[in-house]
Amino acid sequence: MGKKYLIANWKMQLSINESRSLAQELVERLALIKTDTSIVVCPSGPVLSQVAGVIRGSDLLLGAQNSFWEDRGAYTGEVSPANLKELGCSFCLVGHSERREYLGETDEMVGRKVAALLTQDITPIICIGETEDERDDGRREEVLVQQLSLALADAFRQPHNGQHFIVAYEPIWMIGSGQMIESEDVIASAQLIRKTLNELCTAAVADKFCTVIYGGSVDTINLSGFLSCSGIDGALVGGTSLTADNFMSLVEIASRS
Ligand code: PGA
């Protein structure tokens, strides 16, 4: 694809006021620089509409952290993809490892969510990645292929009609850990993701409509290294996205890369 993405995952780390002020500061500082990188912020659910108001008319794009697979119905507590669209979300994280671990989100659920988001023309950011044990047991490839295949199974039952989707490779042992991962491992995973996509939906569709990004302890020191990995066109950032100074440093690094 070529276009770069920097996606801020604020998780459940900020109050409503903190979220609003961070969004406001990003809007003001982004207006002062030139960047070709697409910058997406993913606030927590209850804050989405307020942040949507703050960033309206700016270059910042809005993403949600979760959605359900039905637009409407008796699903207490769930998040409607149609409502996300109404709020102005153009992106949504799906299958983040924290949701898989704490909320029991399965590969099948991820697949249904991806299909529902695409129907709403919301770009799913599909998070896949192996645990430390799976890596040590030499099961990384198997895990990534399974997660990706099931994430796209429902969506690819229909002919692809031009929607963009993002795959975020997030080794679970890297998230929030500050550990190091070798570039070769990131490149090998990006290649595996591409190969799997080519088999799932043809290389022509995958090349044109899918962006692969990296996530897990991305910071101002290591971002340029990740962005120079072949096959990686952006980053999903948790901790380093929580202050305007840190996140704007990442934006500047991405814009120069
Ligand atoms: P981190 O989180 O940058 O704090 O490791 C990334 C993520 O969970 O998406």
Automatic annotation (TrEMBL):
SUPFAM superfamilies, alphabetized: Triosephosphate isomerase (TIM) (SSF51351)
GO cellular component terms given for this protein: cytosol
PROSITE patterns from the UniProt entry: TIM_2
GO molecular function annotations of the record: triose-phosphate isomerase activity
GO biological process, one term: glycolytic process
Reactions catalysed, as given in the entry: D-glyceraldehyde 3-phosphate = dihydroxyacetone phosphate
Compartments in which it is found: Cytoplasm
Keyword Cytoplasm tagged: yes
Top EC group: isomerase
EC number of this enzyme: 5.3.1.1
Pathway: Carbohydrate degradation; glycolysis; D-glyceraldehyde 3-phosphate from glycerone phosphate: step 1/1; Carbohydrate biosynthesis; gluconeogenesis
Key words of the record: Cytoplasm, Gluconeogenesis, Glycolysis, Isomerase
NCBIfam families in alphabetical order: tim
Family: Belongs to the triosephosphate isomerase family.
Subunit structure comment from the entry: Homodimer.
Protein name: Triosephosphate isomerase
